Structures are given as structure tokens and as C-alpha cells.
Amino acid sequence: MIKSLIHRIVAIPLIYDLIQTLVGAKQVRQRLQRQLTGLNQNAVVMDIGGGTGLNRALFPDHIRYICLDNDPVKLSGLMQKEVDGHALLGDAGKMPIPTGSVDMVICTSVTHHLLDDVLVQFFQEAMRVLKPDGRFVVLDAVWLPNRIPSRILWKYDRGSFPRPAQTLHDTLSQYGKELHWEEFTILHRYIIGIFKKHEVVS
Known about the structure:
Layout: H1 2-10, H2 13-22, H3 25-33, E1 44-48, E2 64-69, H4 72-80, E3 86-89, E4 102-108, H5 116-129, E5 130-141, H6 148-156, H7 165-175, E6 176-186, E7 188-197
Parallel strand pairs: 1-2, 1-4, 2-3, 4-5
Antiparallel strand pairs: 5-7, 6-7
């Protein structure tokens, strides 16, 4: 009951965005934004677990932004803020999106909420919906127990499945070809990974 109430409070757009700012989300997104270049006019970007649509600000006005989330409360917050994009209620492991229809799939602070089998389904789905030259961009905090700030932040995070950076890299590499990989620290330890579909050998 209490957890449900807290979740509803945190999902209020102003509160959710404030919490994101306090934990360094602005600096993290600025770093991420440097990797989100080269999108054509009318490119389609799908933001998985996009919540209240904070990532929309990372992209130019001309792109078509789709925010997919399994939380109707957060999607309601996105619509209340009148974000320029489309809210889509759905599951990361089974996206209601046609194959080969998306120029970029972006996923920020989501993988640590997913069980291993769902994580694999998500990576497979992300590659499925991408166009042949599309990019899959992942940003998340990673498990680094020897850092005291990381241990404290993970203690209060709703996500139950933080993973080491190498584990995420190895899993992603099974389903896509690496274009970019970096690790950095802003309170948490983070990774940014960019992958594309494996080339089909005929």
C-alpha cells in the first residue's frame, strides 16, 4: 500500500523530473546527447521506458518521438506535459511496433528493472524493430559495489537487477554489433552503448 502510494507520488511529472535532476540526470543526458546525432528528417525514435518523456528534449523538433512505457501513470504525466510525441502503453519484451520501422531505439535507466530473460527479449525486440541502418542506444547505471555512492543509490532504487558493465556489454554484443561503448561516473557509474543489427551473411 505504502509502496504503491510512493510510486504514484514519484510518477507525478514535476516530482519525477525533480528527482531525476537531483541524481544527476541532466549531466548524464548531456553526455548522452552527444551520441544522438545523424538522424534524418522525420526519423522515428522510440524511447523504451521513457516515463514522462524527459528524453524528448534530447532530439530536434523534426524527429517523430514515440515513448513506450508499461506505466500508465507516467504516460499520463507525459500527456499532461504536452510533450511533442506519442505515448504508447506496452511491454519492452513484446513491442507493438512493426519490424524494421524505427531509426533509433533509445533506452535510459531501464535495464536494471528487467529480469535476465526479459532483458534478452528486450534486446531481441529492439533489434527487430530497427531499420537495417538503425541504432540501439542504451544508457544505464551499473553495479559497482566497491563505490559507496553507488551502493547507497542502489539501495533506494526501485530497480532490482543492476548488472556489471561487462555483463551488459557481453549480453548486448550477442544481439547487435557495437558502434560505441563508454563508461563514466556521475554519482553512479554509467555506461552508454550504441549497437546496430548484425549484418546478415548471404
